[in-house]
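Example (one chain per record):
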Amino acid sequence: MTATMTDAPPPVAPKAGAGNQRSGRSFGQILMIVAGALLLVAAVRVITGADQLDSAGQISAALGLAVPIGLAGLAGLWSERSGVVNIGLEGMMILGTFGAGWIGWQSSPWLGLLCGIGFGVLGGLVHAVATITFGVDHIVSGVAINLLALGATQYLAKLFFADGDAAEAGGNPKQSPPVDTLPHVTVPGLSDGLASLEKHHWFLVSDLAGILGGLVTNLSVVTILAVVLFVGSWWLLWRTPFGLRLRSCGENPVAAESLGVNVYTYKYAAVAVSGGLAGLGGAFLALVTSHTYLEGQTGGRGYIGLAAMIFGNWRPGGLAMGAGLFGFSDALQLRNGGETVHALLLLLVVLLAALAGWKLYRKALWQGVTSAVMAALVLVWYLLTDEVPSDFVGATPYVVTLLVLSLSAQRLRMPKADGLRYRKGQGK
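Predicted structure:
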């Protein structure tokens, strides 16, 4: 994303052949990284005795917390791949929570889910009109969306939930009455078998059982829908002519228009989809996490979703891993967080030591020494304490966000025309 917007023309089209260069890692390399991470986590669990580190309950809680972050990040990916910076994701999520809670308690949670998506689309269209049609600074428009959404939902909550039938059903100026639960899915047989394996606490076997058990037990239908949306977004944006045209609008809209692409249409479509996905993330919070609309329940997840999108380098796979990491760190607060975070300190020592060795091998002396010193300090912290203070546990998701972004910043490549103003007819 760009912090400032200018009227400078977008960069020239890339040279022929530049798009054929491979980026990212191969599937085999990804499998090796995942296998190494599993072995490392299993070893840390055995050494520290922190069995909650990768238990089914921890993974299930992490998945539930990762879904709204992942949907917010996916919303940002759609918008920014078309060249529109969407800082207003937080506000669109707020609109989604209110829409889901407002309609959900009056009718059914399914209609509430649709209304949450619709409210998010409305917020996305307002952002699209401001940035695409009128050329308003993308950051200014996004901040305005956040402020307007917060003020509007606070006013509407006082108007609709403070008295009458809503108040009698449990509503008040800061929350809606309770909403019925959406269905949950558990894979029969497999869930119980994995739970049995996990209880033995065998090295690696029980770790795998705990992770897989958390992914097949008591899943909300919205979680399954989110997985489908991630896969569908990857296929649509990277495997179809529609996706190619949409991404070209974020890379070089002038060149795209010269080839017959209606840039405005694609940008509007992308920002509308972005708003709908953010609204779905808000509806998840209202209908699955708490079963009611609560003022302030988004808790900055729209911004963390943007961080996950940046960590994922504007790609669905990396975004999903980033959302999972943030969800996992957030879930530590719910399940014996102090001891589990203390065990993670040992994992952090290993990772910092490995980073120090790699930097020294690459002749990056200053970075290698810094990583080694940090590894030593964290090791001392681990050895001299038995548990991490609860205040630090609460801050863990935000610390992880800062660490991940700082470590991944060097390999990022955002869409070239992301955030730049575009006027129809520039390519003719």
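Caption: The two ends are 27 Å apart (CA to CA).
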